[in-house]
Amino acid sequence: MKVPALGKYTVRDVLDYRGSATLHHSVAESDTIEDALALMNRLDIVSVPVFGCPGESKPGGGGGAFVDIVSVYDLRDYIVNSPGLDDEVEFQLLAGHASGGATVLQTPVAQVVGARAHAPREIAACAPLESLLRLFAEHSQHRVLVTGVGPGAASGGSGAQLVPHRKRRASADSGCSSLLSASPGGSSSSGGGGGGGAHDEAADGGAGGHLSRGAVCGLTQYDVLRFLQHHNHELGHRVLDTTVGELVGRQRLCLPARKLTVRDSALHALRQLSDARASALPVVDGAGRLVTEVAGASLRGLTTQSIALLGKPVLAYIFGLRIPPRMDPYVVLPSFTVAQIMYGMLRINCRRAWVVDSRERPLAVVSLADVLSLLL
């Protein structure tokens, strides 16, 4: 690491500072995409754990064995690429109300998880902080699962690793794929979910167990940034006084290849996001000045009755979903320092900063992962 003083910290230190990293809010795999979006919107989060449903469950209640973590970006990619979405959008624009038929928002979350091309990663609580930074900075993970948190966890440990392979089975009810975790070597079998405050039989060495709700522990990029801000006196002037211009040049940061205009529809914008594998794209006016951003997180306010908003220009979409003003883009100048960006991101709870010139034209975007990678 570029900051030797941080070498003494582990993932457990970040957990301790975070307080409780147990994921108390969840959805069942039988819950719909609309249920998951509503929960994320209400809690202002971008990912939730998914649990199986051995019995009756309610949205936000979870239950059963841990399946996976699903993010708003997974839901975005599934929604905008689903067949029939354009027809529903066009019908609602013309008729002024929902068609009454099933839409993509009624799809079970299990089907989204089964269709994903990637999987979340896990890391041991005893792993060094550097391993956690690399997961976020180099693998673009938003949230990682933490294992070995309970009192019986081993003190020695490995760094980050892929979540164990999962077995797929055909769902008898919905015809979609649901996920069952494999238990290689008798280890914890919940898709790498890791221990929370309590361990089940599998976590203690038994075979065939699954993590229960409340035993899944996770950390986000934002949690690490808060930890680093708390220890900013140990980062040193070499890191904190780095200007945004230097950071952009050193890491060759730039704008996404695609830009949006205020005339583009929200659905076109979200498809551009999905194709670019980006979390946000800038929206500019006729003079090229930054007006706002379109982010995947904005989808959290979408409902079956408001699908028509996807066919409207991006500004009408943002106003229609009543996205709060704090969701306006965080704008910085090249002369800003890393210390100022860190403080600003935490102050207004944002995930990126748009670098603009004196005429307010976007030059580059600095994400949380870019700030974290500066320490590696």
Question: Can you give a write-up of this model?
Answer:
The strands form five sheets. Strands 6-4-5-9 form a four-stranded mixed sheet. A three-stranded mixed sheet has the order 1-2-3. Strands 10-11-12 form a three-stranded mixed sheet. The longest helix has 11 residues, at 33-43. The N and C termini lie close together (5 Å). 30% of the residues lie in helices and 17% in strands. Helix 3 (72-80) crosses helix 10 (266-276). Helix 2 links the parallel strand 1 and strand 2. It contains 13 helices and 15 strands. It is α/β, with parallel strands linked by helices and 376 residues long. Mean pLDDT is 77; it is low at 152-158 and 160-209.
| Percent of residues in β-strands | 15-25%
> What is the H/E string?
HEHEEHHHEHEEEEEHHHEHEEHEHEEH
Q: Count the beta strands.
A: 15
Main structural class = alpha/beta
Stretches with pLDDT under 50, minimum 5 residues = 152-158, 160-209
Proportion of helical residues: 25-40%
- Structural Rg: 21 Å
Euclidean distance between termini CA atoms: 5 Å
Count helical runs.
Answer: 13
